[in-house]
Amino acid sequence: LSFAATWGILKLYPRLKLRFRGVLGQELAVTLAAQIATVPIMLVTFGNLSVIAPIANMLVAPLVPLVMVGGGVIAVAGLVGDWLGQIVAWGVWVPATVFVEIVTWLSKIPGAMVTWGKLPWWWAVGYYLVLVALLVRKKHDNS
User: Fold this and answer.
1) Which letter does DSSP use for residue 119 in this model?
2) SS3 113
3) Which of 43, 77, 86, 133 is deepest in the core (most CB within 10 A)?
4) pLDDT value at residue 143
5) Secondary structure of residue 32 in the 3-state scheme
6) Pairwise CA distance, residues 32 & 72, whole Å
7) 22 exposed, middle or buried (CB, 10 Å; 0-12, 13-18, 19+)?
8) Dihedral sign for Cα atoms in the order 130, 133, 137, 143
9) Which residues does 128 contact at the CB level (< 8 Å), separation at least 6?
10) Tens of pLDDT along 80-134?
């Protein structure tokens, strides 16, 4: 999923950002790029898809760096002493808890998750072939 999401951001975001304006529009373009690129994996592996994921991603995006950097700081502080790691962890607890609460709250919205059942692997291969063909065609049209 991480590879596909990163690929989607690198390849699809440049095209999507032209359609969305402003900071929120750019955040939406990033999350849609990742979502479009991970749809096949989600449907083949899990058989369902979160339709609310773009909104959830936009809401938690500002918290991600705080939690990630905070986790690194906790690790380093923990090397100095458990007591220091625990003190730093209390500071990271707030953004991490807000992150989890936002995701949990949104997941309870009716219709937030659509279930299709697991799709066959060849469906994902076809999806990616069409997606790559569209990207190559679009690149060729712009040349």
Assistant:
1) P
2) strand
3) 43
4) 58
5) helix
6) 28
7) exposed
8) positive
9) 40
10) 999 999 999 999 999 999 999 999 999 999 999 999 889 999 999 999 999 999 9
Tell the residue number behind the tokens 């690790």, with chain if given.
75
Please provide the size of the chain in residues: 143
Virtual torsion, Cα 109, 114, 53, 35, nearest 10 deg: -170
| Tokens linked to 90 | 């209390």
Neighbouring CB atoms inside 10 A of 13's CB total 20
Token digits of residue 103: 């995701």
CA-CA distances (angstroms) from residue 100 to 24, 41, 56, 70, 110? Answer: 21, 23, 11, 15, 18
């906790």: which residue's tokens? 74
* Contacts of 67-71 spanning 24+ positions with Cβ under 8 A: 67/92, 67/95, 67/96, 67/99, 70/95, 70/96
